[in-house]
Amino acid sequence: MTNAEELPDRRVDLDRAAAAVRELLLAVGEDPDREGLRETPARVARAYAEVFAGLSQDPADVLGTTFDIGHEEMILVKDIELYSTCEHHLVPFHGVAHVGYIPGVDGRVTGLSKLARLVEVFARRPQVQERLTSQIADALVEHLEPRGVLVVVECEHLCMSMRGVRKPGARTVTSAVRGQMRDVATRAEAMSLVLGR
Ligand SMILES: Nc1nc2c(ncn2[C@@H]2O[C@H](COP(=O)(O)OP(=O)(O)OP(=O)(O)O)[C@@H](O)[C@H]2O)c(=O)[nH]1
Ligand SMILES: [Zn+2]
């Protein structure tokens, strides 16, 4: 995938989503026609369109803007807040991503905000945290051709907090390391920057 035109049209079907939410309310024993719920199916459909907007976004568009500043050392943006949706239970998981890379031989970099936008593209989809982490890393490898990439994601999963095992506060940490970031010393430097709050 190189540009938005090549993506299938995956914009959310609002009417279909609203009908499904109405069915869900009926299934749990609610009355979707009572005053407080009357607008809820349409409202939830719009909310889902926002929460899953990443399905119709292409990381190539986000990382299309690069500039050559000849910087060859590590660049790390940390504590990028994220909200995603667990694909198993369709409830949120939220936390932070730390995204770092070492530019390629040409020293080309992307704008710092683009790293946060890249996180959004993949977070706003039904996800598991491991895939979210590796997709961010692999998109950077594909589009920036950097020497190395490190992505660390730390999240609390509401499916573990509000239901199921009910362990609020448990945080899941995942990482994806590519290229020169695999070197022990480089990785240690990146991790010390991530952990140094
Ligand atoms: N590896 C991984 N697991 C996840 C993620 N989000 C949710 N899960 C887990 O997915 C699993 C689904 O397990 P199932 O046994 O099929 O579903 P369940 O009966 O609802 O499981 P419980 O949550 O243990 O009640 C659970 O253990 C969740 O904690 C994620 O991002 N990565
Ligand atoms: Zn879950």
From TrEMBL:
NCBIfam families: folE (TIGR00063), PRK09347.1-2 (NF006825), PRK09347.1-3 (NF006826)
Entry keyword annotation includes GTP-binding: yes
Catalysed reactions, semicolon-separated: GTP + H2O = 7,8-dihydroneopterin 3'-triphosphate + formate + H(+)
Enzyme class, first EC level, given as a word: hydrolase
PANTHER family documented for this protein: GTP CYCLOHYDROLASE 1 (PTHR11109:SF7), GTP CYCLOHYDROLASE I (PTHR11109)
SUPFAM superfamilies: Tetrahydrobiopterin biosynthesis enzymes-like
InterPro entries linked: GTP-CH-I_C/QueF, GTP-CH-I_N, GTP_CycHdrlase_I, GTP_CycHdrlase_I_CS, GTP_CycHdrlase_I_dom
Family annotation (Pfam families): GTP_cyclohydroI
EC number: 3.5.4.16
Binding annotation for Zn(2+): C86, H89, C159
Record-stated family: Belongs to the GTP cyclohydrolase I family.
High-level lineage: Bacteria, Bacillati, Actinomycetota, Actinomycetes, Micrococcales
Quaternary structure, from the entry: Homopolymer.
Name by which UniProt lists this protein: GTP cyclohydrolase 1
Keywords, comma-separated and alphabetical: GTP-binding, Hydrolase, Metal-binding, Nucleotide-binding, One-carbon metabolism, Zinc
Start and end residues of each GTP cyclohydrolase I domain: 18-194
HAMAP family: FolE
Known pathway: Cofactor biosynthesis; 7,8-dihydroneopterin triphosphate biosynthesis; 7,8-dihydroneopterin triphosphate from GTP: step 1/1
